[in-house]
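Appendix B, Record 12. Input sequence as logged:
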Amino acid sequence: MRAGGREDEEASRKLKSMDVDKAENGGGGAGEESPRPAVKYYGWKAMPFIIGNETFEKLGTLGTSANLLVYLTQVFHMRSVDAATLLNGLNGTTSLAAIVASPEEVRPGGAAPADPWRLCSVQQVEEVKCLIRIAPVWSTGIIYYVAVVQQSTYVVLAALQSDRRLGNNFHIPAASFTVFAMLAQTLWIPFYDRLLLPRLRKMTGKEEGFTLLQRQGIGIVLSTVAMVISAIVEDRRRAIALSQPTLGTTITGGAISAMSSLWMVPQLMVLGLSEAFNLISQIEFYYKEIPEHMRSVAGALAFCNLALGNYLSGFLVTIVHRTTGSGRNWLAQDLNKGRLDLFYWTIAGIGVFNFIYFVICARWYRFKGTSN
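Logged structural output:
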């Protein structure tokens, strides 16, 4: 009996080694058809889709939001705080994706229980465990988006009170500054894939260069750096407006600073880079770690992050406005009389704590199918 058991074990090991050899070498035995090479869903061929998707997303969502902010404040004379809060709520609602599952749907691998309120199938338990496992990493994206959504609110308001002249007769539309973040993504993605990634593979010995969690962490750091740059630039813009002759006033009565609005481009470019690192790796992370039959949930998680980030940004604007309103309001209607730079420093400080929390979650996390 023991000899027979050993023979069975040796036979199973040989079969496993043959399967591994086929998977690695892409070949089979004599007379067998060689399987198709594995399809890699990344690389240069995927760039047109990613770039096109990001372009239409920016122009269709952030561009519309930025233009709507200008329209609400300059035409309807809505207070900037109210307009920013309204847009945060609107963007959050449009990004929120409901996850609905029908109890009658066919579930491969397990039958649905008779009473789902009293008894859950094994598959349902595994689905919940999967969501609980990625929840800490997912939650860091909510705070991350607080910095990102500022490019369609207070960056636009600051641009309205800056020198937007380009030449003698042309003024850069304030709402169009969000294009610079999109431009940074468009330029960075092919540069990373074609030039930087091959070198990273040699340095790290990994096919993907940076891991998914490392790329998310880099994105969080870059968003914090962008807020620091925003605070420095805003402090300079306000100082010039208060100490040097202005270029007139806006429709809402705020003085236009003589500082060129192009000084806001670096912070937007850094925000675009942060999205290229964090947003893309977030989506890839969800699709890798969530089971095949839950792909719709994976796609919805990123949009839920964006939605909750918008809501959190609106909540933060409201809290700061009410807290500082009795003295020198940080978010005054006239930005020259406020302290928008301190608001940016606050978001940067929150970003630092978010990065520390992310590092803790990333060190704790174990990828699916691995023990390390």
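The radius of gyration is 26 Å.
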